[in-house]
């Protein structure tokens, strides 16, 4: 479709002009002014209401920005359109007044804490009240693996009434740019409190100005990228880093039974499918407890069958030459190992490298190469699984847990105290 995006953000500038230090400095000053003018006077509930309405628009197939996403997203985002829409729809469906109110209350103790001097019941008894002010300007240096974190950074920043400068990773600006333009069209005053740009990292002439003018600088990406930004941020700006993280899951024997088994396998396959395993929440390994009704080897087989079903509904994006070579090399390694060891089993898609499931008895955590390559490892207990993951303990983002009701609390506490 023909949807012409106006030249409102720096990212809309013609390539021959490019991003220049003066433009970045002026943009930061303008963002601060716009935040004082448009964000501070509005209530948090008004901002949340506007964002919820925009989220509803994004879930409508006739919404012009969604239609542009459908037509161009597969080529420009690095994901198949089915995977892209699945991830974005799951995000937008969570944008409700109730969810935003819950988040604000959880973070600040009171839903109106950013608007007025307020008290909780306990504070009122002691005749205390307080108000929270968000930073005037937040700069986000985003990673290129997923579009959702960049969008959520914009949204949470607006909810705390902060203007924001979003620097997208090279080649990863398509979806964040579409969202920023949709926000400006939907609510121009909120849109005026965002700036979005893209350039190759390492431009100290630009970045020094950007970091100096920001109250807070956040960065997500590889550990090297995080370190580089951290070294450049001045002490006058607060620095928040989100480096490389990985996740895994633990499935207890009690949870692998009855009618819930199919749902469990389907949920595990969806976790592998979503965002083609490129997110910090994407599982690299599922540890499956042994001596249950369904042994780990059988669970691996069932997961392989479910991934094949998922492939038909949510096809994976084509791989780069480098990704394809990595995938085939790792597959070849396990083909040889499975042929010589009964403790290793390889399940793989027949046509191409759409998905791969590796079962092995070795409990040591294995980092997946992504793109729907998952390890299943049999263990005797959660203790054994956690022991296998010790080498990457400081890099863990999330541990998914499937357990029966009578054991879930104890297992969750064990993971939390790990």
Short key terms for the protein model shown above:
418 residues; alpha/beta; six-stranded mixed β-sheet; five-stranded parallel β-sheet; 11 strands; globular
How would you sum up this structure, described in words?
The protein has 418 residues and is α/β, with parallel strands linked by helices. It is 47% helix and 15% strand. It is built from 16 helices and eleven strands. It has helices at residues 21-39, 44-58, 64-77, 81-92, 97-108, 121-125, 148-159, 174-186, 188-191, 204-213, 223-232, 260-273, 296-313, 321-340, 382-388, 405-416, and strands spanning 137-141, 163-168, 194-198, 216-220, 238-242, 246-251, 283-289, 344-348, 356-360, 373-379, 396-402. The strands form two sheets. The protein has a six-stranded mixed beta sheet with strand order 8-9-10-7-6-11, with helices on both faces. Strand 8 (344-348) and strand 9 (356-360) form a beta hairpin. Helix 3 (64-77) packs antiparallel against helix 8 (174-186) and helix 12 (260-273) packs across helix 13 (296-313). The longest helix is centred in the C-terminal third of the chain and has 20 residues, at 321-340. The chain is globular and about 65 Å long. The termini are far apart. The mean pLDDT is 95.
Describe the SSE topology:
Layout: H1 21-39, H2 44-58, H3 64-77, H4 81-92, H5 97-108, H6 121-125, E1 137-141, H7 148-159, E2 163-168, H8 174-186, H9 188-191, E3 194-198, H10 204-213, E4 216-220, H11 223-232, E5 238-242, E6 246-251, H12 260-273, E7 283-289, H13 296-313, H14 321-340, E8 344-348, E9 356-360, E10 373-379, H15 382-388, E11 396-402, H16 405-416
Parallel strand pairs: 1-2, 1-4, 2-3, 4-5, 6-7, 6-11, 7-10, 9-10
Antiparallel strand pairs: 8-9
């Amino acid at each position: 479709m023909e949807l012409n995006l106006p030249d409102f953000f720096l990212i809309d500038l013609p390539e021959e002009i490019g991003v220049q230090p003066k433009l970045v400095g002026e943009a930061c000053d303008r963002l601060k002014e716009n935040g004082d003018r448009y964000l501070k006077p509005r209530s948090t509930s008004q901002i949340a209401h506007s964002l919820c309405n925009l989220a509803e628009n994004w879930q409508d197939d006739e919404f012009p920005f969604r239609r542009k996403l459908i037509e161009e997203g597969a080529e420009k985002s690095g994901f198949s359109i089915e995977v892209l829409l699945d991830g974005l729809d799951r995000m937008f469906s969570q944008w409700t007044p109730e969810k935003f109110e819950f988040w604000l209350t959880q973070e600040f103790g009171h839903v109106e804490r950013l608007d007025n001097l307020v008290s909780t019941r306990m504070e009122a008894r002691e005749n205390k009240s307080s108000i929270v002010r968000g930073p005037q300007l937040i700069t986000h240096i985003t990673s290129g693996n997923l579009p959702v974190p960049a969008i959520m950074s914009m949204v949470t920043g607006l909810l705390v009434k902060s203007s924001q400068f979003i620097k997208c990773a090279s080649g990863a600006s398509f979806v964040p740019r579409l969202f920023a333009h949709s926000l400006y069209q939907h609510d121009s005053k909120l849109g005026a409190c965002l700036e979005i740009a893209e350039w190759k990292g390492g431009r100290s002439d630009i970045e020094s100005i950007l970091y100096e003018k920001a109250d807070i600088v956040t960065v997500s990406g590889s550990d090297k990228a995080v370190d580089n930004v951290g070294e450049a941020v001045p002490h006058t700006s607060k620095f928040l880093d989100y480096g490389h993280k990985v996740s895994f899951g633990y499935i207890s024997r009690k949870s692998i039974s009855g009618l819930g088994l199919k749902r469990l396998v389907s949920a595990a396959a969806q976790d592998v499918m979503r965002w083609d395993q490129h997110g910090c929440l994407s599982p690299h390994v599922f540890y499956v407890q042994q001596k249950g009704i369904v042994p780990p080897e059988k669970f691996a087989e069932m997961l392989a069958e479910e991934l094949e079903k998922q492939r038909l509904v949510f096809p994976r994006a084509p791989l780069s030459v480098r990704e394809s070579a990595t995938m085939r090399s790792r597959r070849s390694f396990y083909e040889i190992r499975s042929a010589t060891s009964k403790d290793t089993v390889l399940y793989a898609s027949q046509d191409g490298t759409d998905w791969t499931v590796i079962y092995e008895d070795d409990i040591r955590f294995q980092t997946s190469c992504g793109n729907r390559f998952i390890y299943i490892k049999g263990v005797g207990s959660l203790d054994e699984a956690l022991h296998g993951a010790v080498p990457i303990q400081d890099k863990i983002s999330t541990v998914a847990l499937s357990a029966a009701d009578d054991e879930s609390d104890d297992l969750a506490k064990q993971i939390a105290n790990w």
